[in-house]
């Protein structure tokens, strides 16, 4: 079996040495070269033709974002960002994902003796995943790509895709009082969620989201989503009443997000219990709470992501009468979570990302279960 060839790009000699040691210790991975700045990296990409690039965010002579933007325009390839888990690093990393990076890992600390094994597992796993992932073109938000007939309230910016099933084909007014839309995602999910929220109308049902993301990324991610959506996007707080036209995103790393009943209302409940499926927030935890407390009044969506978190919970939602949607293989960066949900038998519709918003709005008006092959 051929090894996955990796080029490590980082201005720190110590980090280059550390990453090389971690990667080369794994039988199926090999560091074929290192580079201390983007100009050297550009030359080595041509010479070595690596399968995956690990890229530092802050670089001399040309910053990592500028290099990534040029790379994805001229020579698209799988990139795993290596960034500091700081507020500034979060903003930069989210922008890198927008430009086409597959995933990110936190920059290793100088003294990682106690966590070396866990860190090695994380970065090697993400390199393997990146090698198999679909590289998406850089996002371009300059043109409005909605239907010929606009939404009742136009988004603040344009979507980056032309909707295959345009929103204009579906009713603009629909009952949302008891509807809840639950979304789960992981790798590639920040951009997939952006597409969905940018095309939802202001009177869409209340939406709850569990996205695998570090705690330091939560505020930046929520702020970005609020800027591109006509819905009100919030970081979920315990006791928040779930209202139409509002989106509630689970806090990264710190809490699971659940939906519970409070009389006639649905409210957010945050739980700081142990990770489930190695994740907190866990999609399974959110979907299970939806199955138990919302049932047929819910629509579940599972988007691109590595692993199987959410597959069991979606099956429970399906069995409780909720309508369920999985992003299809072709438009997913990684078809792990959606594929597992399909395998578990809990998916009613398998759709390209561009068709999901239209299907949700249609189901709000006409809730019909019909498995789409």
UniProtKB/TrEMBL annotation:
Function (record text): Involved in chemotaxis. Part of a chemotaxis signal transduction system that modulates chemotaxis in response to various stimuli. Catalyzes the demethylation of specific methylglutamate residues introduced into the chemoreceptors (methyl-accepting chemotaxis proteins or MCP) by CheR. Also mediates the irreversible deamidation of specific glutamine residues to glutamic acid.
Provide the alphabetized UniProt keywords. Chemotaxis, Cytoplasm, Hydrolase, Methyltransferase, Phosphoprotein, Transferase
What's the catalysed reaction?
A: [protein]-L-glutamate 5-O-methyl ester + H2O = L-glutamyl-[protein] + methanol + H(+); L-glutaminyl-[protein] + H2O = L-glutamyl-[protein] + NH4(+)
Provide the record's note on post-translational modification.
Answer: Phosphorylated by CheA. Phosphorylation of the N-terminal regulatory domain activates the methylesterase activity.
The free-text domain remark for this protein reads: Contains a C-terminal catalytic domain, and an N-terminal region which modulates catalytic activity.
Pfam families for this protein? CheB_methylest, Response_reg
Q: What is this protein called?
A: Protein-glutamate methylesterase/protein-glutamine glutaminase
User: Could you tell me which residue ranges the CheB-type methylesterase domain spans?
Assistant: 174-362
Q: Which GO terms of the molecular function aspect are on file?
A: methyltransferase activity; phosphorelay response regulator activity; protein-glutamate methylesterase activity; protein-glutamine glutaminase activity
Does the record's keyword annotation contain Hydrolase?
A: yes
User: What positions does UniProt annotate as the active site of this protein?
Assistant: 186, 212, 309
Q: Recorded E.C. number(s)?
A: 3.1.1.61, 3.5.1.44
């Amino acid at each position: 079996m051929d090894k996955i060839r990796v080029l490590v790009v980082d201005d720190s000699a110590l980090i280059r040495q550390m990453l090389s040691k971690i990667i080369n210790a794994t039988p199926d991975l090999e560091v074929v070269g290192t580079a201390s700045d983007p100009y050297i990296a550009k030359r080595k990409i041509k010479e070595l033709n690596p399968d995956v690039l690990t890229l530092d965010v802050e670089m001399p002579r040309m910053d990592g974002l500028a290099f990534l933007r040029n790379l994805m325009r001229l020579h698209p390839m799988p990139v795993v960002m290596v960034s500091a888990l700081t507020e500034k690093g979060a903003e930069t990393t989210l922008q890198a994902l927008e430009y086409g990076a597959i995933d990110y890992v936190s920059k290793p600390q100088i003294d990682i003796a106690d966590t070396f094994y866990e860190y090695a597992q994380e970065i090697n796993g993400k390199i393997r995943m990146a090698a198999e992932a679909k590289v998406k073109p850089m996002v371009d938000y300059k043109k409005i790509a909605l239907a010929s007939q606009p939404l009742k309230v136009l988004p603040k910016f344009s979507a980056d895709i032309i909707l295959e099933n345009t929103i204009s084909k579906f009713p603009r007014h629909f009952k949302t009082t008891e509807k809840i839309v639950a979304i789960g995602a992981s790798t590639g999910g920040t951009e997939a969620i952006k597409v969905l929220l940018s095309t939802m109308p202001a009177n869409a049902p209340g939406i709850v989201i569990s996205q695998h993301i570090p705690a330091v990324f939560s505020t930046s991610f929520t702020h970005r989503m609020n800027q591109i959506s006509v819905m009100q996007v919030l970081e979920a707080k315990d006791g928040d009443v779930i209202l139409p036209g509002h989106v509630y995103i689970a806090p990264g790393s710190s809490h699971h997000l659940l939906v519970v009943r409070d009389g006639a209302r649905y409210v957010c409940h945050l739980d700081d219990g142990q990770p489930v499926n190695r994740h907190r927030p866990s999609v399974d935890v959110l979907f299970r709470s939806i199955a138990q407390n919302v049932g047929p009044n819910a629509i579940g969506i599972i988007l691109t992501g590595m692993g199987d978190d959410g597959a069991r919970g979606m099956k429970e939602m399906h069995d409780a009468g909720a309508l369920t949607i999985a992003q299809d293989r072709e438009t997913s960066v990684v078809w792990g979570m959606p594929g597992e949900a399909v395998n578990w038998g809990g998916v009613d519709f398998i759709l390209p990302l561009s068709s999901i918003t239209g299907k949700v709005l249609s189901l709000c008006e006409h809730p019909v279960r019909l498995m789409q092959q």
